[in-house]
Every structure is written in C-alpha cells, then in structure tokens.
Amino acid sequence: MKGTVIVISILALLQSVTSCTQNEAYTCYKQETTTYVTYTLCWEFWNLFQCKEEHTITKTVSSTCHRHVCCEGYQRSNSWEECKAVCFGSNSCQNGGSCVAPNKCICPSGYISPKCDDENECSVKKGGCSHTCVNTKGSYHCSCPPGFTLDSNELTCKDVKECSVNNGGCAQKCVNTEGSHYCSCNPGFSLGSDQLTCKDDNECSVKNGGCSHTCNNTEGSYHCVCPLGFTLDLHKLTCKDDNECSVKNGGCSHTCINTEGSYHCSCPPGFTLNPHKLTCKDNNECSVKNGGCSHTCNNTEGSYHCSCPPGFTIDPHKLTCKDNNECSVKNGGCSHTCNNTEGSYHCSCPPAFTLDSHKLTCKDDNECSVKNGGCSHTCYNTEGSYHCSCPHGFTLDSHKLTCKDDNECSVKNGGCSHTCNNTEGAHHCSCPPGFTIESDKLTCKAEATIPQVRTSAVCGNDNGGCSHSCIGMNETVQCTCPILKKLADDNVTCIDVLGFYYGLCTCLAVCLMVATGLLARKWCVRRRGAFLGNQRPTANEQKLFVVVTSSQEYGDEFKNINLQKPPPYKEKMDEKDIYM
C-alpha cells in the first residue's frame, strides 16, 4: 500500500513538470556534403569491367540558427538532448531517486527527500515490528528471535512449533515452549549430552532398583524378579514367600512343610518319601537290623514294634527283651523256691521236699517212714526235715541219730541242791539228814525254820549280802530272786528252779507219744528248744522261757531233758520258734 502511494505521486509530478528549454539565435555553421558517381574501366584478373566510384564533396555553409538553451537549473550533455534538471550537481538522485526539478528528487520507497537518503523506518515504533526491526537500504524488515517466525503481515512474530517438524529433532518427546522447545525422555531414559537423544537408564544399578531379590533392566524400564518359591508383592518390589502348602497341601500325601522360598513334604514316623518326594510309603523298619529288636520285629503301617517270646518282657526302650522273672510275682506260684531261667522258671524244693505233679507245690518227705529215719529211738518227721529224739535221761550223740544216757548230775549237780544220783535215762536228788526234798524234787528244805530277814546289814552295804535283789525294810533287808530262781536255805543266795518244768514237759511228751503210737505231732519248742510237750506253751510258759534264756544261766536239768542250749534272748517269740 505504501509503495502504491509513492508511485502515484511521482507520476503526477512528472506530468506537471516538463523539460525547461528556451530558443536562442546564433550563427551557425553547417557542412553540406554533395555526392556524385563516376564510372571507369577496371581490371581484375585479366578481366576488364566497368567499376563505379562515389565521390563526396563537403563544404561549410553559415546560416542563422536557433537553438534550445536549458533553463536555469537544467543541463544537457548534447545539444540534441533535452535539458534535464540538476539535483545537487547531478541529473539523477542517489538511491534510485529521480531528479524532476532542480535539487528536487523524487525518491523510491524507503528513501526520503531531498537527496533520497535512506529512511530508517525502525526509528518509529520499531517499524511496527512486534520484536526486532531491521533497517535496510531503502527498506526495512521485521525479524524474530530464535523460535519465532514472522506472521503473514510481516510484522508480528509468532512462536515456531519446532516439535511439529521432525519432532524437533528429539528422539522421544518434544516439548514446545514460547520461542523454543526442548527434548525429554520417557520414564526409564535420560537425555544424552546432545540434548536430543535418549539413553536407557539402568535402574538396577542404584540400590538394585529397590528390588528385594533380582532386578532385570529393560529398555526404558526395569522389573523385579523373584526366585522360585517367591511372588512379588503389590508394590512389585519385594518378594514374599509362596506358601506352596496352602494349595492342595503342596501335593504332599501327608505333611507339607513350607520353607523360605520352597517347601518339602515330610512323612510321619515310620514312613519314607518316595523318589518324587510327594507321597509317603511305609518303612519296613524290621528290614534293617531287625528294627533294633533283640527278638521279633513286627512291621506295621507307619511303625513297628518289637515282641518277645514267652518268658520275656520288652524293656522300657521297647527294643530289648529282658527275661521275665516269674519268681518276682507270688514266687512264680511256687510253694518254696522259685528258680528263674532265661525265658522260663521252675520250682524247686528244699531237702526233704518233693514237687507234686503240678510242679509248683512241695510236699514234705516223711524220712521217718524209711528205717525210722536212722534214729535209734524216736523219729520225728517235721515240715521239710526230721529229727531223732531220745527219751528223758538220754541225749543224742554227735550224729544226732543214737541216744546215749545223760549224766544229769554232771551239769550243775543235776539241779539238786544237795546230792544228785544218776540213773539209766534219769537221775534223782537226795537230801542229807535234817533236810527234806521239796515238791520240785530238786531242792532240799531244812526241817528247822530259818529266819527270812537279815538285820545285820542294809542294802547299801554290799547289796545287803544278797546274791540278786535286795529290799531294805525297817533297817533290815529282804533278799529276792528273779523268776525261775528261789532263795536257798541261807536266805541270801538264789538257786535255779527250771528243772521242774523241763522234766514236766518231757514226761508229758513221752506219755503222749506212747499213747498215740508216734503218729501225732503236737507243739514243742524247735531247736531253740525251751520246751518239749504235747501242747503249745502258754503265754506264761513262753515268758518263763524268755526270762530263762535271757539270764544265760542253765542248770544240770538241761542235760537230763536232752535239750540243746537255748539261743540268745528274744523279746518276743513268734510262730517260727514253735513246731506244730
């Protein structure tokens, strides 16, 4: 639009201004030229021909001429040229301007009068440019910073969408900005040094990518991987153990045991895993070293047990059979001796006993039934034994079979207080004159009265002269004797009275044996022998015997009644001390 206005103005100016000339008379000279032709003969290569020659005659002729003279401010180079205006010493203006009048130039667009100097359009409002105005010779133009381009009006800069052309040169993402752009990369990539290309990030190189186990780098990403037996959690970073046992028991037939990253099947005692490690098969424990059993091994489903033959019992470890001591329970049923053997037992009897047909009970052998047991006089069968006995006044010899006469008088005078008279199988006491035998047939009693109390001493002085006990009474003493003893005639000495009871027991026993034909056995004292009689001793008699044996004092009566020496004192007699 601007250029069109300028052109119209120039045309109008040209129409209104003509070349400025004026007529001027002067003597002028001009040369006039006259031309005539002559013909002559000419030769050329022996040819004769007519040739033509032109001749010119020039002469100067003066006359009055009129000439055009340029107006002031105009000039021309030749007279035949038009006069042209002179602008600042030249017929033309600089920068393509037209000189239309003296010192008056018509300038093309971009130039300004009077000399058509360049117009700096940028000096006024940046030439209308939105960004940069660039003045040029005769014109100007707007320019834009990098990242912008001129709009169609050539004035306004608009943003260049670099990303729209070849993605801005970016390998992956192009991000347009106002006047620029930049490249970016997808997750898992980083910009290269050229700021255009993307290179893969190896996320696994930093803290294993956060993976608890294996980190696998991929193009632009990565992922965590778990070993067999593990599964990634929801965050896809941590491997958590798979409980294989939670699904169909891991395929195990019996027990499934989950472990860290794996699992295994196990079997109850007595079973072994098959080669595929899932099902259990029964162990035949008995096939290896008999299961550890000392005798019989019995395999069962999943177990086994040891058993023992009769007469044996399994020990607490349930492996070894130990012999049953059948004798430990009720003596094996044996009446006497039970003999345990390896796996069995048998009953046996003491000498003089024989097992019955049941092989449990011992029955007594009656030794007296064969040759009177070898006794010279009386044979007494006892439970499990026998013994020979002699009538009163006899004693068994060292072989305990033959009876020999006892000289009762040789032992403590036969119990007589005075004279002892030995007879075949017996003895009797006799008294000197002035004495009479008492009812015990042992003691002689003086016919005269003998004082019972001594007054000449007290108990504290030599026990009052008493051989045993002394009792002080009103400045006198009374001597006393223990049971089975009595005061002698001197009233201070205690003498034995035991012979009477022995004699009585012996007499009763002999009488009873004769009356029953030696078939009945009654109570008599066993070899500890306090009594021999036809009935069990009374409590008083037992007490008497105990007192006698405790005193350890024995009269000659023991010899006469054919008794062995009593054993040491016993506080209480039991049934074992007495024969039935």
Structural notes for this entry:
By secondary structure, this protein is mainly β. Among the domains are: 2-124, no CATH class; 126-160, Laminin; 164-200, Laminin (Ribbon); 203-241, Ribbon (Laminin), CATH 2.10.25; 244-283, Laminin, CATH 2.10.25.10; 286-323, Laminin (Ribbon); 326-364, Laminin (Ribbon), CATH 2.10.25. 9% of the residues lie in helices and 36% in strands. The protein has four helices and 46 strands. It has a two-stranded antiparallel sheet. A two-stranded antiparallel sheet has the order 3-4. Strands 5-6 form a two-stranded antiparallel sheet. Strand 7 (111-112) and strand 8 form a beta hairpin. It is rod-shaped. Residues 1-18, 449-457 and 517-580 have low confidence and may be disordered.
- Record field, number of beta strands: 46
Radius of gyration: 87 Å
Measured as a percent range, the helix fraction is under 10%
- Secondary-structure-based class equals mainly beta
Beta-sheet strand percentage?
Answer: 35-45%
What oligomerization state is this entry in? single chain
The largest β sheet comes out as: 2 strands, antiparallel
- Mean pLDDT metric: 79
Shape: rod-shaped
Order of adjacent strands in the largest pleated sheet: 1-2
Number of helices: 4
- Kindly, what is the distance between the CA atoms of the first and last residues, rounded to a whole number of angstroms? 172 Å
Low-confidence stretches: 1-18, 449-457, 517-580
